[in-house]
Amino acid sequence: MLSVTYTASLFGVDAFMVAIECNAVRSLPSFEIVGLPDLSVKESKQRIFTGAYSAGISIPDAEVTVNLAPADRRKEGSALDLGILAALCRSCGVIPSSCKLENMCFFGELSFTGEVRRVRGALNMALSAANAGLTEIFVPKENLIEASAAAGNGVKIYGVSNAAELVSHMRGESCITAVTEPPEKVMSDMRVIYGDFSQIKGQSRAKRAVEIAAAGGHNILLVGPPGSGKSMISKRIPTILPELTYAEAIETTKVHSASGLLDADCGIVGHRPFRAPHHSMSTAALVGGGKIPMPGEISLAHNGVLFLDEFPEFNKGAMEALRAPLEDGNVTITRAAGRVTFPSEFMLVCAMNPCRCGYFGSRRGTCTCTNTDVKNYLSKLSGPMLDRIDIQVEMPELDFTELSNMTPSESSEDIRRRVEAARQLARARFRAAGRADFALGSNAKMDTDDIRAFCKLDDDCLKIMESSFKRMNLSARAYDRVLRVARTIADLDYVAGGGEITSSVDAGGRIGKKHIMEALQMRSLDKYFKN
Ligand SMILES: [Zn+2]
Asked: With bands split at pLDDT 50, 70 and 90, how would you rate the model's confidence at 437?
């Protein structure tokens, strides 16, 4: 008898629907799968029959043919097991015809003991199934928390722990409780994960730079000797970025789920991610790749922070590969099976020592590098990569007064409030100018036209820019970067002064002298780099 049901197959971060058509005819036992299955799908026969036998499901002898449609797309992975089992049971009459398999979707891997194992991309597949109009979605019990985000509007999600439980539910002998509503917005407390800004002593300049970077979405480079707190401050940046929205949380979870990194009990990623790949990491692991394309670190950092410590040690290839994703907010990987695009909207935070030994300009250690060594070390960064970093800031070691100061400094929450207000202001401005595409409200994304429209300077400011450029020997490219940062500083200033956020192209007011001066200070390292 012919039966039809559905499953989903993961491709990149998205999943496409797969119809499972199963035909079983009473005959000598045989089993065949057609429709571009990969090796893991072909092997499902062993898992399904042994798993069913262990679970006490008796499948009568039959000639079984399974067709996976669309036939022209390759289906990968073991997540199809559960759907094939359901279709097979229906074809053989193990589950009754009253069971509407054509409204259902199944995914999960079967073990030889009949247990249903967790799969990668459960949320992604459940969302695709719900979008396709399927109303009953069966997922591995361990994937239930994440997949339940697809519930609601008549869509029910069932968590299955073993094959016997599923068949018994289908036969009406027992009942698996369904999740019928998506979880409430579950945001984790980021201060528990990353710590709080109030724990950082001193470093007021670096803290200010980081606040500006967060407010404008600017990429930032921290330069300082070992022990100056570069990692400590970087790790806390997610705590001052605007709160993750529900939509962003789902997007981020999809990437983590597709890469199999989600904990069973974590469900939805409720905090901005912070990823700190080591410089020895391969380019593929950094930007994504592999035979079956998997998201790389830059995609795992989507909606969060990518932290590259010891920045000059990253190889040229990796830095090259970062350029396009930094510009586009996503990364495309081309494989024989097709093109996969992973999202990669992150804030880049880089840290480095001022020289190879780390102690150039330090009070605590003695630098053993020659002047040429220092120049060479810094010049490793010259070129296109630095063009994408708006803010550079030096972090000296703390002096004794700062170290012995016991008063806690400002909390992440206080800083985050200012950051959020500045972003709102930027969003209002972009919206008024008909630039609704600036969904993130980030000044760092302004192109030359936007800069002309939103960063007008008066004569005084122009004079300062002119003389500084001559004195600091800044490049033409640095000009735009200074203006973008000055815009963010002016925005922060405006909201700190209690300015009202109005929907106008002039929202936030003009960039003033002090804003330009501060923005120029954020490029203090340009003199070392060959631009
Ligand atoms: Zn040195």
From this structure: low
Q: For residues 344 and 346, what is the distance between their CA atoms, to the nearest angstrom?
A: 6
Please give the distance, rounded to the nearest whole angstrom, from the Cα atom of residue 434 to the centre of ligand 1.
Answer: 50
Q: How far apart are CA 115 and CA 512, in angstroms?
A: 66
To 10 degrees, the CA torsion angle through 100, 158, 56, 44? Answer: 80
Ligand 1 center to residue 370 CA distance, Å? 7
Vertex 50: Cα angle to 45 and 53 (nearest 5): 125
Helix 204-216 / helix 476-496 crossing angle, nearest 10 deg:
90
Mean pLDDT of 219-235: 92
Residue 154 CA to its chain's centroid (Å): 29
Residue 350 bridge partners (DSSP): 221, 308
Rounded CA separation 165/106 (Å): 14
Cα of 368 to ligand 1 centre, how many Å? 5
Distance 354 CA to ligand 1 centre (A): 7
Q: Express each pLDDT in 347-371 by its tens digit.
A: 999 999 988 888 887 777 888 888 8
Q: Separation of 309 CA from ligand 1 center, angstroms?
A: 17
| Average pLDDT across the chain, whole number | 88
**Percent of the chain surpassing pLDDT 90:** 53
Ligand 1 geometric centre to CA of 227 (Å): 15
HEC string of 76-130 equals: CCCCCHHHHHHHHHHHCCCCCCCCCHHHEEECCEECCCCEEECCCCHHHHHHHHH
Q: DSSP letters of 201-270? A: -S-HHHHHHHHHHHHHT--EEEE--TTSSHHHHHHTGGGTSPPPPHHHHHHHHHHHHHTT---TTT-S--
Contact between 104 and 5 under an 8 Å Cβ cutoff? The reply is yes
Q: Ligand 1 centroid to 206 CA: how many Å?
A: 21
Q: What pLDDT does residue 150 have?
A: 93
Q: 439 pLDDT exceeds 60?
A: no
Q: 52 is written with which tokens?
A: 């069913």
Ligand 1 centre to CA of 363 (Å) is 12
> Which phi-psi region, left, alpha or beta, contains residue 223 (left: φ > 0; alpha: ψ -120 to 50)?
beta
Spacing, Cα 355 to ligand 1 middle (Å): 5
Q: Omega before 70 cis (within 30°)?
A: yes
Q: What is the CA radius of gyration of the chain?
A: 28
pLDDT tens string 38-66: 887 888 889 999 999 999 998 888 999 99
526 within 8 A of 472, measured Cβ to Cβ: yes
Q: Would you say residue 293 has pLDDT above 50?
A: yes
Structure tokens at 32: 């065949």
Ligand 1 mean position, distance from CA 374 (Å): 7
Say how many Å lie between the CA of residue 91 and the centre of ligand 1: 73
Distance 360 CA to ligand 1 centre (A): 5
Distance between Cα 353 and ligand 1 center (Å): 9
| Distance (Å) from CA 306 to ligand 1 centroid | 26
Q: How far is the CA of 311 from the centre of ligand 1 (A)?
A: 16
